[in-house]
Predict the structure.
Amino acid sequence: MLELSSVAHGDHEMNQQRREFLRKAGLGALAGLGAAAGLFPAFALEKTDLSVFSDKPEPGKVRWGMLVNTRKCREGCTTCITACHHTHNVPDFGSSKSEVKWIWKSPYDKAFPTSSRQFQSEEVLNRKVLTLCNHCAEPPCTRACPTEATFKRWDGIVSMDYHRCIGCRFCMAACPYGSRSFNWQDPRPGVRELSSTYPTRERGVVEKCNFCSERLVKGELPACVATCPEEALSFGDLNDPKSAIRTMLQSNETMQRKPELGTLPSVFYII
Amino acid sequence: MSKHIQTLVAVLVGLVVFAGAALFMLGAHHNVRTATAAPASSAIVASPAKAVPIDSTKCIAPTEYMKAHHMQVLDQWRFDSVRKGTRTFVTPDGRHFDKSLNTCLGCHASNPMFCFMCHDYANVKPTCWSCHLSPMETTK
C-alpha cells in the first residue's frame, strides 16, 4: 500500500517535470520565433510575389484591341452584328428579356454615360455606338467568376470556357458594360442557320464576344472587322507601337467606355 | 543549479524544434514557388498557333488506344486549346493536328453514328452535343 502510493507520488512528480519541460520548450520556440521575426522581417511577413500579377498590359506581350470609328459607322447598318451572330451561333428570340448579344448598337448616352454631354452636337448625341466586350486589361468579370470559367488569355482576350460555366451570373453583375448575356433557354431553336465552325451554347451558360479567337488562330480578322462595309473597325496588337491600330490611336482623339473605372478597355472609339 | 541547466536544455530543445519547422516550411515554400513558376512562364511564351493543315490519312493514335483513352485525349485537347492556347498536337511520328473536336469529326463524321453506336451500347451520356454540332446534325 505504501509502495503503491509512493509510486503514484513518483509518477505525479514526473508528470510535473514533463509539463515544466514542455512549457519551457514551448517558450523557447516562441522566443526563437520572436527573435527570427525581429532579425528577418521578411520571414514574419510573407513577401508578395509581384510576378504573379502580370495581367497589366505588358510590352512584348500581345494585347488585341479594336478601334471603332463612330464617324464612319453607318446608321441602320447591322452587317457586322449579323456576321458576328451568325458566325458564333448567337440565338435571337426576338425579345429583350431573353436577348443574347455579342456586339450591338447603343445610344451615345448609354455607351458613354459618364462623358460630358454639355453643348455636345446633336448629331453626336444621336449617334448609335457599336458596343461589344471591351476585353479589359483589368477585367472585373474574371475576378467575380468563382470557377475561372471566364479568364484573361495570354493575348489579352477575356475568354469564356463554356464547359466550366455554372451559370451563377456573377460576371454579368461585375461587368460594367453589359457585355455578357445569359442563356435562359436552350439557344438552339433561336439560331436560324447553324454555323458549323463554332459550337452553340446550352441553357444556363453565360456568353459574350470572344474577339473571334477562333478566327485569330487561323490568321483571320474578327468577323465584324472583316465584314464592315465602311471599314469603320480596326483591329490589332495594342502592345506593338508600330501596329496600324497604334498609329491610328496616335493620330486620332479617342475615347474608352467608362475609363474612370480603371478597367483599361481594349476597345477605343473615335467620336 | 541543475534546475537552471534543465531550463536551458528545454529552451534549446524548443529552439531546435522551431528551427527545424522553419527550415521545413522554407523548403516547402520554395518548392511551391518553383512549381507554380514553370506553367506561368510557359503560358506567356505560348503564342497563338497557326492554322494547321489536317493530315487525315491516319488517326492520331492506334485504334485500341483511342477506344480506351479518347475521353482523356479530348479533355486534354479542350484544356490546351481553350485555356492554354496551345492548339497544335504533334503525334510521335511527327504529324501535326489542330486540337479540336472538329479534327476528329473531320474523318469520323463520315459515319454519323460513329460516336453514338458505342455510347449507346455502353450507356454513357457525354454532354458534348448539347453545344457542339454532332455528326447527326451536320450530315442532315
